[in-house]
Amino acid sequence: MNTENKSYTISIYTENNLGLLNRVSAIFLKRHINIESLTTSQSEIENVNRFVIVAAMTEHQAYKIVGQLEKQIEVIKAYAHTDEETIYQETALFKVASDSLFDERQIQNIIKDSHANIVTVSREFFVIEKTGRRHETEQLYQDLKPYKLMQFVRSGRISVTKEQMNISKMLAAF
Amino acid sequence: MLFNTIVMETKTQTTTKTSQEKITHISGAEAVVKCLLAEGVDLLYGYPGGAIMPIYDELYKYQDQLQHVLTRHEQGATHSAQGYARVTGKVGVAMATSGPGATNLVTGIADAQIDSTPMVCITGQVGKHLLGTDAFQETDIVGISTPVTKWNYQITEASEIPEVLAKAFYIARSGRPGPVLIDITKNAQFDTFDFEYKKCTSIRSYKAVPDVDEERLLAAAELVNTAKKPLIVFGQGVILGEAEAEFKALIEKTGIPAAWTILGLSAIPSKHPLNVGMVGMHGNYGPNKLTNECDLLIAIGMRFDDRVTGDLSRYAKQAKVIHFDIDPAEIDKNVKTDVAVLGDSKETLAKILPLVHENSHESWLQEFRDFDAIEFDKVIKDELYPTEGGITMGEVLKEINQVTKGKAVIVSDVGQHQMFACRYAEFKQSKSNITSGGLGTMGFALPAAIGAKMGAPEREVIAIIGDGGYQMTIQELGTIFQTKAAVKIVVLNNEFLGMVRQWQQLFFDKRYASTEMTNPDFVTIAKGYHIDAQRVKKRENLTAAIEEMIASKDSYFLEVCVEKENNVFPMIPTGASVSDIRLS
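^ inputs. structure came back:
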């Protein structure tokens, strides 16, 4: 059995019910697996939510986690995917003091080269948004760090799979 | 009573829908009672309190249709509901108020979850407007119970009650059964609405029973037909699926020896020639030893608990493994399977029967008998037929077998006496062994025996309890006194927390840290509840005492003072392999 820890993206299709987040996270907690990121949103199907959870675990743990998740009454289907099997992105927001935009010419080049967007500009600060893989937002963070970075926040991973999901078919079959 | 009738009449206004369905305008509290009745509930266990008073008020009005048993602690209510569920196969129901009432249910809920017992718990909750205010007796029981329930839900509007309770019962009993908790805010109990009940038969995100894959059945049958040394290990899945007859037919046709987990016990008669005994930590010598000799291990409705498998890396490594289970999450969880057959045991076992060949495994069975002879010589003989020293726990079980002829329901608590009860009690009928298996809840047996007796009033129900566990729920003697439940209680008193003491002796150099008990006069306590009682200290008085207990039409308490420092053997030490099982 492969005992090596790998990053897995756990995708869970669920009913949109109160308390389900607690039930889902408890399954990770019980097995002492730390959740690296978690997002939840509406999915492609009306009234069906999708959790995207990133966590490091072994292949066997990923298999068992999926089994325990699917066992929950309001979980429709769960999957574990490796990074290679998904297309994923994260979004980061950077709040920078406005004076650095004018005082430091370099910062304009950083924004241009990173293909980041300026979301808003005010007298005191401006906000940059960057969507991409972790290493891209991380790079921008490192680049902006010297220039009075007032706030930084990064979203959890969102991902879609390369393979088909067929959730609607599954729902019809229950 | 007149007053009640008037209240009911003013509250219940019946309107008729266009169809034949009757819709009545009633309170949420009354709706709860009507839902229970619609689900066939005629008995529930609980304890009232502020946040659930409206429902209790309705229980008062409906007491001729629905019996409420007041336990002496909410934990007792859950265990009684469990005992009732285990002996009947029906859903047990427990009720409690908010806050401490609700938190006291948690142990029983966790026990029901790990032992797959169908149970619905209903808790009162503070009014919706008070949620999150740290109101008096407010606690987040939905949050607390999430990891130990199959499903839970908080109702805050009366109109949700019928649908949610219908779902609760469906979820609790279907598929792999389990506990469901429904928390109902006080306003939802008081508010009125148009009540209409429809049973739940499916939930779109929940597949209760997996479809049977015929190809896997064929693959499994192929392995069964070619195996030279096959071994079946069965668990409670056979009982929960009510597949005892199908199971018996399968082993008799194939001639395969069958060993059981403690929750599988009683699914086939103890004396069946293919019943080769118990697996696991204190199981029988043969099935444990031969788990590491068989060429095919057929697991049926069991989950490879660590107390069954010992060290997984040295568990049945030489064998191919077939796993029959209703729960897909159990497949490959602990032991890698070659063929997994998903589905309800009643269906899968019936379907594999025509695919397997008639066979007998005489020389292989002889290996089990040879190990049995060794175990009898080294362990069982002294346990059941001692000639000196104090009374042993095993001989108490042997005497009970003789008097009851193996027809009783045996409810055991947790510890040494439990292992003796499971090893030595004889059964002729399924659903007769009730014990806390997965969670190992001390204090389980007394309240569970009350539930079992009420679920099977025509049967003899005997609780076998240690002096430690007895004192964890001893207050339920009050429930026995009040309800006149004719439970027979046997306390095997060794003045120790015996199982922990045994481990201290074997693995902690006899440092008996907090395991010695200074006990009260149990007979006097039982008599305080007007329960007939006696104490036995001498071997020569044991049989007569047990006969007197069984002859009693009422509840009876028997304390047997047993040898203080006896140990349960065989034993697989933690971390050892099943084949490293020790006889001393």
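The interface with chain B takes residues 1, 14-15, 18-19, 22-23, 26, 29-30, 63-64, 67-68, 70-71, 73-76, 171, 174 of chain A (CB under 8 Å). The helical segments of chain A are 20-30, 59-71, 98-103, 105-114, 134-144, 167-173.
thumbs up if we can close this ticket
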